[in-house]
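Office hours follow-up: a student asked to see two folded examples consecutively, so here they are.
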Amino acid sequence: MSIEHYENFPVASWLLPARLREPVGAIYGFARSADDIADEGTLADAERLRGLDRYRSELDAIEADRPTQDPLFRRLRPVIAEHRLPLSLLRDLLDAFSQDVVKKRYSDFNQLMDYCRRSADPIGRLLLCLYRAETAQNLAWSDAICSSLQLINHWQDVAVDWQKGRVYLPQDELARFGIAESQIAAGRWDAAWAAMMDFQIDRSRSLMASGSSLVHELHGRIGFELRLIVASGFRMLDKLQHVRGDVFSRRPVIGKGDWPGILLHATFG
């Protein structure tokens, strides 16, 4: 659960209880390194997919109680056992990373949300398992928060993703607002783009709000960290709304000046 997805995934945060810092770090190491295989460097697509398949083989070895070869998985293995983490969630992440290698467009919002279900929602679900708080309602709220954060990241990164050959904005919605991909390539903001981004921002805000009751179910430092994450998400939506979705001139980010408001929202919101 993170405004920058895995880039700012909470690693050994001072807000986390000490007993959870190593498990969170092990999960982060898995997610970050697998995402890097899919997204970083100059590897050919076939090599990226083979790298992710090697990760699947390591998960298969854990499931079959066979030795694991990669130090990353030797670190992850006891965390999976102690906290009974569902391997299906880790496999979902690998499926999403593989999809990023081969799928560059999304025909509609349902298709995009299916991607979010595998690329973002497993992170929240894994954390709830660590917290021993994985009730059906909590999982549903977590999914809403995580999917919203993933969407926010996509809206921040329209220009960045274009350079990677990807467009996460649903194709049918681009057409509805009269926007061609050539406009993204040119980095051209206009009234039609602003209206389309307002629509995306409002929907992401509603999704975030629909899951925000989770902050009242998790207590202590864990709960406060979640409050910060949710408040950061709402703050980023405010920043995107303020520039009417003009992510071409300058990519909106959370800066030092945003933190007083985020802390206030997390404390009293």
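And the second, which I mentioned at the end of office hours:
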Amino acid sequence: MLADPPSIPHILTAAAGALLLACAPSPAPRVELAVLSDGAGIVPLTNDRGLTVELTTCRAAIADLVLTTSGEFHDRSALISRLRRALLSDAWAHPGHAAGGEVIGELPGRFIVDWCGGDGVKLGDAELTVGDYNGADFTFIRAAEADGLPPGDPLIGHTLELAGAVTVDGLTFNFHALLDQDDGRALIGAPFELEVDAATTATLGLQLLTRLPDGATLFDGIELSADQPQLELLPGDDAYNRLVRATQSHDFYRVQPRP
């Protein structure tokens, strides 16, 4: 006895399923690129008040680096960039200025980035979908022993540590600051320009910039006194508050592709 032929609805269902399988997009190719701490942005500077600063310690506790496409256009005009910072000088409560784009690459995890003492240290391998990248985001955290720091390390419980030499009125003295950002605060839209294809082999350097191409510096607006040889910047100090705001701005970070 012959089996009944398949009904027309069954034939149509099978045909539709086959068509969907045939038309389903294949996953976009992905590549892994190493992310390094890159100290190239740490340079001696003279701020807008005539203060000369040379950092010897510059570390930050961050988490979950993500790499994006189609974010806000980062202007290349020095004049426009400087005017924007002047207008927003005390209004950086929204770091990144809504510059976020679509996330198509990531390096999850917690990291201690040491720009002065750990240049070139590998943070991990980021996984990137093939595409055109133009931004990077991460979150600020509070450092802990679990991040690989020794007991008693001054960064524990804080977000950033900055220290170095300051010259004012011909006198040079040391300064030190432990900066606290809100745990989990997002920094959005640091510049990252790279077209990634399946053959890309670049490494990615995460940089902190002490001086920008337009002449602005991380220490602009800060005035210090040489009344004491070792100056600790404390919460509530004007210099401390200005550094906290400056280190929230995406202008002072960059992911730099390196061969």
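Two things to take away from it. Residues 15-24, 73-98 have pLDDT under 50 and may be disordered. Residues 28-258 form one domain.
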